[in-house]
Design goal:
The complex is a heterotrimer. Chain A contains 17 helices and no strands. Chain A is mostly helical. The radius of gyration of chain A is 25 Å and the shape is flat. Chain B is mainly alpha-helical. Chain B is built from twelve helices and two strands, in the order αββααααααααααα. A two-stranded antiparallel sheet of chain B has the order 1-2. The radius of gyration of chain B is 24 Å and the shape is globular. Helices cover about 45% and strands about 15% of the residues of chain C. In chain C, the strands form two sheets. In chain C, strands 1, 2, 3, 4, 5 and 11 form a six-stranded mixed beta sheet that branches. The chains are: A mainly alpha, B mainly alpha, C alpha/beta. Chains in contact: A-B, A-C, B-C.
């Protein structure tokens, strides 16, 4: 096609350049400031010329703040969220698609509805549940009079208490209470030819065999996409870890960064160290996104479809 | 897959397979939502004991509270300005990136990066960049003292919040819109070009109309998202200040519930916000007639 | 309610029962130097006796600690003791989750606690509900080097003198003569106490839950209006106006010449500024008689629902931290003040009160021990933590020029009263102790 699209292409390049600058600007500022010494920062203020103090700043953050521990927490929580989600979402979708179950539709609906109400809207009471996850059990026992019967018979009042606040499980579990991956896998399974499982059944393979030998290998790309998305989601979540972890030692890195105050309290904030902290908190997910671009785009578009 | 021959028969296996996910959803989704409704109908004491059933009184109190409406208004303003920018900018970028130009490939990569950076983390960075004494606008303040004061001026703080929010909102909307644009068949372009439509015209007459469904989708997702997404930014940048200028509803709920021990009030406002978000979803459902999830 | 009877019965037993060994937990909120000092208390306690073992758990802040205590209490996994800060006093008193400390001991001379500490944490009949632990109060700080540059050699004592000094500093080209964060603890509570003007009716709520805020008039309102005018004149700066972005940092860094701050800030101020720092009791307006200031910091509360042995262990710990030498060690490590007179007297008798680390101890206690009235015992108002946010929010709007100061105070009063009414309803039928 021979056509003059030069003006449009030039405009497109300019627009993209502006967009890329907008994205990169804060990241570059973070990087540059993180390389400056506190002294030169105090003298010169904001600067675009990199310094040579990155290692020293990392050392300050590493030794004087809780961030290293919190980074470890983030890695644990994000990995837990991603791995568990991949597992349970896959098995749930498998159950819904490949089995004849009564109320399958209702079940799926109940899973799906969860995506309408993000955790940040229900954290107040989710916190109470996390403070005692046996609460529903107690309520049921109360409701059916079992508590009363046991108490009259034995004098013992049943009241189970298990708090998951300030634990890794407690930080991760509410982030898993949604239908995200289930939907993704369900949609994917439905695009697979029905003959696949029919053939498996004729060969006498049971459902678990079918799952291991055929479905999991086929779903690799979906696992990768879901894993990356859930990892990033777990890493960047804020409100829930903020309330669910009450000690700095259990806080995730993103929450820790917002409260970071390295250096001497008698001086103005140690911005180079704070920016170093911001860098440390973002480097793992950024590397992940730069390297696994394909999976992320795939994940985002898949969950949208 | 309705074909019964392709499905397995088992009574307990599917239940066992689905149980972990269902348990988590029951415990951390349905129970909390039920509790929120329950608390919104009672006056709950912080340490428990003596919760008094008060019917709709909490709703009456919240709906008569000027602060609630102010926070709601700020949420709506944030939603309209922040979301519009967070959709329109990615749209322009996606149209540009859809062309075979030099920057298209690197831009497609870089524009997704914010997805990796938590709102609160970039909030810390923007807070530094916009610091009135040492940040990028400091020279401006030296010429016109007091012109840029996000620590004191509510409007400045709000602007800061929106810039950071849009930054974080680009990846998702960009990816979706770009995917939509790329799905426009080449033949459309060709035939329009044959008809003599200029490249600029084609952007307006073909590309934009063709991505309308995606556009609508990202708008609604962005709207619902913006109701809660700003929390991390607010907590890291302004803590709702100055003078409450950045206290959006979600932040108010946090403060009321976790700092003010007003469990009933926080639960009531949560329920109202849930209803609001649900109605947004319903609008989307009926207009788009498609199943939705918003996963970002 | 059942739990109630059980725990009351347990309590009655606890008082009479012999000591059993117990492992108990104590939750506290502080971080940094104070946290280290609290942990030192706990270790010293464990080393001092064999009966009990205490584990002290940091919660990362007073508010986080309170929130976690609430969740823990609701699921009956709460510790025997928690430390909580001044502003939440009434919330805890009415919670029905704590045992008043005075009922646990019959051999403690509670009157030995200094006036400010006692008043804040005691019931209307004068009995301590919680045991004062880390106590601070408000004092005035000046950087004498900077004052001298402007030709001022005397420490200002009244607000009139503070402003005169600020004017001299400003005329001499100083950009930040006086700095404040306008936090209600400093500009409202401590101001009202030492000027003898309550912020709410019923003696700041001491005589009934139907109290109403009254600070939008009289000397408090006048002071707030003055602060705003002084800021417009460049005599007073807010924390947000400073490069440091924080009022104590701005003072330590030499950006600002004067401030009102907690006694606990002295250590850091001296570290940064050396001999240039001078302190005095917080300034008064001319012609107003000085009353006591309030105690800041926190106290230790004993929670309900624990067995006799745990209560015994808690009592042993409370006895332990009450000892003079323990209080003095804590003061030395943190800059908080001794809370009993006997600890202060021991300190003075040892002559160590002249040492730098104890510089604020005597002055702080002196400020707390000024003659008081029924209206200067403390703040006994519900949901007060939330009220502080409201006060900040409304006055911030005034400082930013969005409303005038009187309107801000009126709004804060109105919104505060709504909180008080809701608190009253939440605790309907509960007697104010």
């Amino acid at each position: 096609m021979i056509e003059n699209t030069k003006s449009l292409d030039r405009t497109a390049n300019v627009i993209l350049a502006v967009g890329v600058l907008y994205i990169l600007f804060p990241l570059v500022i973070t990087l540059v400031t993180a390389t400056q010494s506190f002294e030169s920062f105090l003298q010169n203020g904001f600067s675009f010329i990199p310094g040579t103090y990155l290692l020293e700043n990392i050392q300050i953050v590493w030794e004087t703040t809780q961030l290293p521990r919190q980074l470890l927490n983030s890695i644990i929580v994000a990995t837990m969220v991603a791995l568990i989600k991949c597992g349970i979402a896959f098995t749930t979708a498998f159950a819904i698609v490949y089995f004849r179950i009564r109320y399958g539709g209702i079940l799926f609906g109940m899973v799906l509805v969860t995506n309408l109400m993000p955790l940040d809207l229900r954290f107040i009471t989710t916190y109470q549940v996390a403070a005692n996850i046996m609460m529903p059990v107690n309520a049921l026992l109360d409701f059916f009079g079992i508590t009363y019967i046991v108490q009259t018979l034995t004098g013992y009042r049943m009241n189970f208490q298990v708090s998951v606040l300030n634990t890794y499980f407690g930080l991760a579990a509410p982030l898993l209470a949604n239908g995200t991956g289930t939907f993704l896998f369900r949609q994917y399974f439905r695009t697979l030819p029905a003959d696949l499982s029919k053939a498996a059944r004729m060969d006498g393979a049971g459902p678990m065999r079918f799952l291991w030998d055929i479905l999991i290998p086929l779903s690799r790309a979906n696992f990768a996409a879901l894993f990356v998305l859930m990892f990033l989601g777990g890493w960047t979540s804020y409100l829930w870890p903020l309330v669910a972890a009450s000690t700095p030692e259990m806080q995730t890195a993103v929450v820790g960064l917002a409260r970071l105050s390295p250096g001497d309290p008698g001086q103005i904030p140690h911005y180079p160290a704070i920016m170093t902290g911001a860098l440390m908190v973002s480097v793992i997910p950024l590397a992940m996104i730069a390297l696994m671009q394909r999976h992320i785009v795939r994940g985002l578009t898949l969950t949208e479809k | 897959m309705a074909d019964t021959n392709s499905q397995f028969n088992s009574r307990w296996l599917p239940i066992a397979l689905a149980l972990p996910q269902l348990l988590l959803i029951f415990l951390f989704f349905y129970v909390p939502i039920y509790m929120a409704f329950f608390w919104s109908l009672s006056l709950e004491r912080p340490f428990g004991g003596g919760a008094e059933f008060v019917g709709l009184q909490n709703y009456a109190r919240v709906l008569n509270d000027a602060e609630f409406w102010k926070a709601t208004w700020r949420t709506v303003v944030f939603m309209l300005i922040g979301s519009s920018l967070a959709v329109i900018l990615p749209l322009i970028l996606a149209v540009a990136a859809d062309r075979r130009v030099r920057l298209a490939y690197p831009a497609r990569n870089v524009l997704v990066w914010p997805k990796a950076v938590a709102g609160a983390s970039i909030g810390v960075v923007f807070l530094f960049i916009f610091n009135p004494f040492i940040g990028i606008l400091a020279p401006l303040n030296e010429v016109y003292p007091g012109l840029w004061q996000p620590g004191l001026d509510g409007t400045d703080a709000f602007i800061m919040l929106i810039i950071a929010h849009v930054w974080g909102g680009i990846p998702f909307n960009f990816v979706i819109l770009l995917a939509g644009l790329q799905a426009v068949p080449q033949s459309f372009h060709h035939s329009a070009a044959m008809d003599g439509a200029s490249a600029w015209r084609r952007v307006r007459d073909i590309q934009i109309p063709m991505v309308l469904p995606q556009l609508f989708l990202v708008f609604v997702l962005e709207f619902t998202e913006s109701v809660t997404a700003a929390f991390g930014l607010i907590d890291a940048m302004t803590q709702g200040g100055p003078g409450g200028a950045t206290t959006l509803l979600v932040y108010k709920i946090y403060v009321d519930g976790f700092k003010g021990y007003d469990l009933s009030g926080a639960a009531t406002q949560s329920v109202i916000l849930m209803v609001f978000v649900l109605s947004l979803a319903a609008v989307q459902f009926f207009i788009l007639e498609r199943k939705i999830r918003y996963e970002r | 309610m059942k739990l109630n009877t059980i725990s009351t019965a347990a309590l009655a037993l606890a008082v009479a029962a012999p000591a059993f060994a117990a492992d108990i937990e104590f939750w506290y909120g502080n971080g940094g130097r104070v946290e280290e000092a609290i942990q030192a208390h706990c270790e010293a306690f464990n080393a001092s006796q064999d009966d009990h073992t205490i584990t002290c758990v940091g919660q990362g802040g007073y508010e986080a600690g309170m929130q976690k205590a609430i969740a823990a209490y609701r699921s009956q996994q709460h510790p025997v003791m928690i430390q909580f800060f001044d502003a939440g006093t009434l919330d805890l008193m009415l919670s029905d989750a704590v045992v008043p400390v005075h009922t646990l001991f019959d051999d403690v001379d509670w009157s030995d606690y200094n006036t400010g500490a006692k008043g804040y944490y005691q019931t209307s009949t004068g009995e301590l509900f919680s045991q004062p632990y880390n106590g601070s109060t408000l004092i005035f700080y000046a950087n004498m080097d900077q004052l001298a540059e402007a030709g001022v050699t005397e420490m200002p004592e009244t607000w009139e003198q503070v402003i005169e000094t600020a004017q001299a500093l400003k005329d001499n080209g100083h950009a930040c003569p006086f700095v404040t964060d306008a936090h209600p603890w400093r500009v409202l509570e401590q101001f009202s106490a030492r000027h003898g003007a309550p912020i709410a009716s019923n003696n700041n709520g001491y005589t009934g839950l139907d109290a109403e805020y009254t600070f939008n008039q009289g000397i408090i309102a006048q002071h707030m209006v003055n602060l705003q005018n002084w800021r417009n004149e460049g005599l007073v700066r807010l924390a947000e106006d400073t490069e440091a972005g924080n009022y104590t940092r701005a003072f330590y860094a030499g950006e600002c010449a004067m401030m009102e701050g907690s006694t606990g800030s002295y250590g850091a101020a001296f570290e940064s500024l050396g001999e240039a720092v001078r302190i005095s009791m917080a300034p008064m307006y001319d012609g107003v008689e000085r009353k006591n200031t309030y105690i800041g910091g926190a106290s230790i509360w004993v929670m309900k629902g624990h067995d006799d042995a745990s209560i015994e262990a808690a009592k042993a710990f409370l006895d332990f931290v009450r000892q003079d030498d323990q209080q003095i060690a804590f003061t030395e490590a943190t800059g908080y003040m001794p809370v009993t007179m006997s600890a202060l007297n021991t300190l003075v008798a040892s002559g160590r009160n002249e040492e730098l680390v104890f510089a604020t101890a005597e002055m702080g206690v002196e400020s707390l021990n000024q003659p008081g009235t029924d209206a200067t015992r403390g703040i006994r108002l519900g949901f007060y933590v939330q009220f502080r946010d409201i006060f900040k929010e409304e006055t911030q709007k005034a400082f930013a020029g969005e409303q005038d100061m009187q309107a801000a105070l009126d709004n804060a009063v109105a919104r505060g009263n709504e909180l008080l009414r809701r608190f009253e309803q939440t605790y309907q039928g509960v007697q104010l102790p």
